[in-house]
């Protein structure tokens, strides 16, 4: 989170399961500092309720097809 500083990114794409800080904690901390930054989660383990409860703006389920970005 220190890397973000005063210049938040235009978009954050994150996995849910990561070492150190998981995607749920990341989106919570990011939205506290920069609520306008959209966060896209990529995981095989997230429910629709998680997307709403944790303020993800979009979700792609693994395995994902790169064509989903176009």
TrEMBL record:
SUPFAM superfamilies: CheY-like. Pfam families: Response_reg. Residues 1-70 form the Response regulatory domain. GO terms for biological process: phosphorelay signal transduction system. InterPro entries: CheY-like_superfamily, Sig_transdc_resp-reg_receiver, ST_Response_Regulator. Signal peptide: none annotated. PROSITE patterns: RESPONSE_REGULATORY. This is Response regulatory domain-containing protein. It comes from marine metagenome.
């Amino acid at each position: 989170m220190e890397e973000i500083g005063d210049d938040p990114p235009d978009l954050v794409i994150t996995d849910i399961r990561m070492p150190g800080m998981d995607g749920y904690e990341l989106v919570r901390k990011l939205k506290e500092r920069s609520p306008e930054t959209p966060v896209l989660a990529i995981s095989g383990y997230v429910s629709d309720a998680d997307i709403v409860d944790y303020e993800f703006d979009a979700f792609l389920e693994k395995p994902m097809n790169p064509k989903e970005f176009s």
